[in-house]
User: Which sequence fits this backbone?
């Protein structure tokens, strides 16, 4: 498994015993416990003429990458409950590995890790983890506790991405999101490092996003709409060439792709200097595409890292025991008993 | 102490949730604020969301999954999905009562008229087997070794001979019922009880052996009677029915002479003339030859020839042996293996009549009777006779069968003790519930039992179902193992 102990030790600290804890409502009948991931990409415009899209659309001939290793990485976080000055959350990351020459997959799960975040310690946790993952200090203050939990999840995911591209060779590495750098949580240097380490190990890095802040300047419509009336599998781009502002923050080539004939369109970021041609990468991606045209390995990575409602109840119980918390009864039913 | 929570009560069943680390077994007795309930089934607690949780885990094979989990969380993960739900049958309560000498003690009372337990505050505890047996008034000798209870803390259990009456040992093939019957038989020998065994499959014949070459401590009191045996060998004696020990009506029945016919009347005349003297088939043949009526002569000669061909009639010391062994205890095994149905019924009928006669005349006090698969050699009327009349003569039957449906309903309504081993078939389980000794839900627990594990209920358990595992017997060739096609 990848080395995570050093990073994990920065987030699994102890907090003062005896704090009151109000567990998050958990309905065991919920199939999916929804979590918000990422801070949302800011809106930016692309000056692409919709009439020209046909010139930039390329068909894909799907090719299952039997001979290649495929790595898919995803992570989630969940709020387990509220503390007087913060919260206790849990984070988990999954790495799905399809070995070269095989169709079966293995799974490496990192977590769940219990992360207490309070107003008093959030800066310390965030900065320590930032240093542990990125190897440099940050003077940035942590945002509110909820966003800090998401930043912690993001740092864990970035750490695993960094470790994975160093550890694995000549693989197709699928990550959730984009190759956008220059943000508080994702400095350009780090995204570049992931890209360069990938390339030097012969890995083809691909970031896949179900949504994007990039919109067409002319119509204000999302760039994913470019493939609305186009049958797949196909991809369109490079869109990055047409970005109007802060182009330098977009570190990879940006495509809109449909990986199956009737699949959903996704934004796909691929480093310019990928060891494999972009056309070949799309062929392999289409070969991996399952329901809704989403790569099966990445779907599995997501599904295996999401916390089930049962796990949430178990983690709430673990948090209470580990941190010596006392259960706080919800005030609402007391005030409004009927 | 086991941390348990009361979830529901439906009719006389309590559903109790507990954690998988806790040790709670089938047959354990729980006290729930004074209510006595017995665990008859254990399941996973059916939590909403479990299916989704497990499906998600099943996306990648277990063998292909590696996890790095925070150590403090590791013990908690999956604990909820493994939560157990015990179904416990309310049996009654334990209350303060007085014994025969007026001493106050805790006693078990069936029934439950009050229900004032709390889900949140009620303390649920496992009742120790010693405390349970004490409340049930079950006191076993220190050397008891018939079996051990199937509770989380197993205790020695004994079947006390004085509490035996009409007994049924049942269970599917290979469940251990015959083995247990033999263990019970040896226990009866030790208690100086005489048992007559109808051995259909020659399973009991070697009970006197320690191994193939050596007799064991029971050898002196184990006698085997085998029909058509040419000469006596060690513990095995030839089985014969002495003509002078049966009536003309018995003989007529055995060899199919219709009542009221001239042949029947001649038989009656022959028996009356002989009175209490010794006689045999040669005497009957001479009598037949002197008959005036030729048709009767031919008929009687035919019956004499048939009786000789059967090879069952002749001098025997069976009666005297029963009378003697009744004093010392032991077992007389009637070997029915290799006998046809007609011959079997003659032999069994003779032995049963002899026992009834000895009992009625008070020549014997009480004997135990083991009937393996009785439906194969005792007709329904005789079975009812054994159940209703013979117990008044001191004959206590133990039926042993792998299909309780073959026994008449009277067995179940008059049953004193039930020893039930594993069954899978619902119909057979339903039949056992007819005894009224145990409810269907508890009987259903038999489906989960392993070989030699059983429920014992009746007089021997003060009517409280006790789950036990029959202990192995050493120093005796038990026999009766189901043979394998290829070993």
Assistant:
């Amino acid at each position: 498994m990848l080395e995570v102990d050093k990073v994990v030790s920065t987030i699994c600290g102890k907090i003062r015993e005896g704090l009151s804890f109000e567990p998050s409502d958990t309905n065991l009948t919920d199939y999916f416990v929804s979590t918000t991931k990422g801070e949302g990409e800011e809106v930016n415009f692309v000056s692409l003429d919709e009439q020209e899209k046909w010139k930039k659309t390329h068909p894909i001939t799907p090719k299952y990458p039997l001979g290649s290793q495929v790595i898919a990485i995803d992570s989630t976080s969940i709020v387990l409950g509220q503390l007087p000055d913060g919260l206790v959350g849990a984070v988990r990351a999954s790495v799905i590995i399809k070995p070269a020459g095989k169709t079966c997959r293995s799974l490496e799960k990192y977590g769940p890790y219990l992360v207490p975040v309070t107003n008093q310690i959030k800066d310390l946790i965030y900065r320590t983890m930032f240093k542990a993952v990125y190897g440099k200090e940050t003077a940035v203050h942590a945002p509110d506790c909820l966003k800090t939990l998401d930043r912690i999840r993001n740092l864990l995911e970035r750490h695993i991405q960094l470790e994975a591209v160093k550890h694995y060779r000549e693989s197709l590495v699928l990550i959730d999101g984009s190759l956008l750098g220059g943000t508080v949580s994702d400095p350009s240097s780090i995204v570049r490092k992931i890209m360069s380490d990938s390339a030097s190990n012969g890995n083809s890095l691909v970031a896949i996003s179900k949504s994007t802040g990039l919109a067409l300047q002319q119509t204000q419509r999302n760039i994913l709409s470019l493939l609305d009336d186009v049958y797949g599998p196909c991809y369109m781009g490079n869109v990055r060439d047409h970005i109007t502002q802060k182009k330098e923050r977009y570190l990879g080539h940006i495509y809109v792709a449909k990986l199956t004939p009737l699949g959903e369109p996704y934004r796909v970021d691929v480093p310019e200097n990928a060891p494999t041609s972009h056309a070949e990468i799309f062929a392999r991606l289409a070969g991996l595409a399952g329901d809704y045209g989403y790569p099966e390995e990445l779907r599995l990575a997501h599904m295996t890292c999401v916390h089930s409602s049962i796990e949430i109840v178990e983690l709430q119980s673990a948090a209470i025991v580990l941190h010596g918390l006392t259960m706080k009864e919800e005030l609402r039913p007391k005030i409004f008993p009927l | 102490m086991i941390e348990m929570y009361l979830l529901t009560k439906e009719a006389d069943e309590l559903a109790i949730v507990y954690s998988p680390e806790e040790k709670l077994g089938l047959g354990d007795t729980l006290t729930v604020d004074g209510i006595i309930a017995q665990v008859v089934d254990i399941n996973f607690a059916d939590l909403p969301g479990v299916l989704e949780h497990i499906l998600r885990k099943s996306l990648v094979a277990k063998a292909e999954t590696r996890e790095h989990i925070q150590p403090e969380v590791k013990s908690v993960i999956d604990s909820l999905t493994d939560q157990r739900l015990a179904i416990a049958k309310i049996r009654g309560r334990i209350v303060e009562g007085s014994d025969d000498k007026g001493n106050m003690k805790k006693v078990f009372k069936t029934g439950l008229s009050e229900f004032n337990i709390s889900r949140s505050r009620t303390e649920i505890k496992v009742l120790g087997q010693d405390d349970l047996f004490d409340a049930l008034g079950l006191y076993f000798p220190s050397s008891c070794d018939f079996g051990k209870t199937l509770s989380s803390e197993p205790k020695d259990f004994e079947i006390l001979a004085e509490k035996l009456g009409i007994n049924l040992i049942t269970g599917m093939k290979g469940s251990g019922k015959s083995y247990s019957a033999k263990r019970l038989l040896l226990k009866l020998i030790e208690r100086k009880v005489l048992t007559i065994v109808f051995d259909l499959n020659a399973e009991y014949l070697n009970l006197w052996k320690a191994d193939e070459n050596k007799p064991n401590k029971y050898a002196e009191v184990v006698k085997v009677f085998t029909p058509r045996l040419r000469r006596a060998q060690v513990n095995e004696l030839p089985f014969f029915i002495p003509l002078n020990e049966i009536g003309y009506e018995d003989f007529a029945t055995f060899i199919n002479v219709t009542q009221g016919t001239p042949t029947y009347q001649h038989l009656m005349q022959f028996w009356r003339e002989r009175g209490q003297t010794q006689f045999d088939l040669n005497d009957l043949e001479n009598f037949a030859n002197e008959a005036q009526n030729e048709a009767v002569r031919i008929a009687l000669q035919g019956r004499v020839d048939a009786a000789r061909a059967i090879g069952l009639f002749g001098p025997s010391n069976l009666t005297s042996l029963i009378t003697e062994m009744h004093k010392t205890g032991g077992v007389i095994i009637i070997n029915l293996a290799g006998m046809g149905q007609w011959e079997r019924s003659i032999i069994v009928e003779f032995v049963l009549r002899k026992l009834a006669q000895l009992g009625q005349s008070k020549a014997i006090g009480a004997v135990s009777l083991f009937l393996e698969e009785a439906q194969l050699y005792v007709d329904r009327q005789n079975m009812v006779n054994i159940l209703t009349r013979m117990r008044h003569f001191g004959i206590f039957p133990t039926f042993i069968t792998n299909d309780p449906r073959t026994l008449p309903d009277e067995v179940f309504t008059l049953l004193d003790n039930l020893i039930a081993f594993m069954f899978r078939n619902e119909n057979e389980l339903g039949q056992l519930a007819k005894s009224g000794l145990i409810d269907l839900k508890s009987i259903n627990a038999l489906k989960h039992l392993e070989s030699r594990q059983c429920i014992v209920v009746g007089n021997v358990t003060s009517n409280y179902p006790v789950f036990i595992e029959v202990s192995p017997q050493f120093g005796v060739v038990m026999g009766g193992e189901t043979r394998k096609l290829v070993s």
Remarks:
- The interface with chain A takes residues 47-50, 52-53, 56, 59-61, 64-70, 72-73, 76-81 of chain B (CB under 8 Å).
- The mean pLDDT of chain B is 89.
